[in-house]
Each structure stands twice: as structure tokens, then as C-alpha cells.
Specification:
The protein is mostly helical and about 80 residues long. It has one domain. It is about 95% helix and about 0% strand. It contains one helix and no strands.
């Protein structure tokens, strides 16, 4: 004595629904993981850009400092020559 076709059909439907839910959850996880990855890359790019700006400013300051030093040296030379 079996359960009949009706019970079998019901079990199959439940199994399919479970698989469907499992697949949806898997897709959601994938989606979140992908978004996280993209966000991380975006953050890294921004950090790199900020770092480059800082570096550029540092070089500019260094350049100005060097210019001032040279200018001071020239003035000193002129002053000595006049004496």
C-alpha cells in the first residue's frame, strides 16, 4: 500500500520549493558578496587618490622649500659680493 499519487506530488512540490528558496538565498548571498567587493574596490581607489594628492602636496611643499633655499643662497652671495 503506497501513499498514492497525491502524496508523491505534494512531496515533489515541497522539494522544488525548498530548492527554489535555497537558490534564491544563494543568489542573494552572491549579490551581497559582489556589492561588498565593488564597495571595497571603490574605497581602495579613493584611498589611492587621496594618497596621491597628499604625495603631490608634499612634493609641492618640498619644491617651494628648495626654491626658498636657493633664493636665500643667491641673496647671501649678492650680499657677500657687495661687501
Amino acid at each position: 500500500m503506497g501513499r498514492g499519487k497525491r502524496g508523491k506530488r505534494r512531496r515533489e512540490e515541497k522539494r522544488r520549493e525548498r530548492e527554489k528558496r535555497r537558490e534564491e538565498k544563494r543568489r542573494e548571498r552572491e549579490k551581497r558578496r559582489e556589492e561588498k567587493r565593488r564597495e571595497e574596490k571603490r574605497r581602495e581607489r579613493e584611498e589611492k587618490r587621496r594618497e596621491e594628492k597628499r604625495e603631490e602636496k608634499r612634493r609641492e611643499r618640498e619644491k617651494r622649500r628648495e626654491e626658498k633655499r636657493r633664493e636665500e643662497k643667491r641673496r647671501e652671495e649678492k650680499r657677500r659680493d657687495l661687501e
